[in-house]
Write a structure and sequence with these properties.
Layout: E1 11-18, E2 26-33, H1 39-57, E3 64-68, E4 89-94, E5 99-107, E6 111-120, E7 123-126, E8 130-133, E9 137-142
Parallel strand pairs: 2-3
Antiparallel strand pairs: 1-2, 4-5, 4-9, 5-6, 6-7, 6-8
Keywords: Cytoplasm, Ribosome biogenesis
Function: Required for maturation of 30S ribosomal subunits.
Main location: cytoplasm
Amino acid sequence: MLDASLPGPEYFVVSLTVSNTATRPKITATIDGEEGIGIDELSTTTRRLTRQIDEAYGEDAAYNLEVTTPGADQPLTDQRQYARHAGRTLALKLTDGRELEGKLEETTPEGLMLSEVVKEKNKKKTLPAALFPFTDISEARVVISFK
């Protein structure tokens, strides 16, 4: 069993997948951190996982290993990912089917405090921050702005 040993407690695994191909399986570990993650941490994690795979399956095991971070276009999937995006605009899909966009004011253990932006007669209006529980969020993405 792989232990995606990370360089510190502030880092966490977002996903770990193994492709089901007959030739060379591809192992993809997506990791993140409370303050983001740098190339040094990715390198350290890659070396640790490579060592673990070699110890468990032998150095002749055929596989491709990719250790990466979530891309800017990837949804936020772990509650720990939200805090560093405070002040940025998020697009939310809620479990009731609603979609909304707004500024992430803060995160709480229960959910997100978001100032929703709504359109009214060709104008945008920002509503007071409201709590959106994590259990009500089916998908959240950071809105990339090039302003």
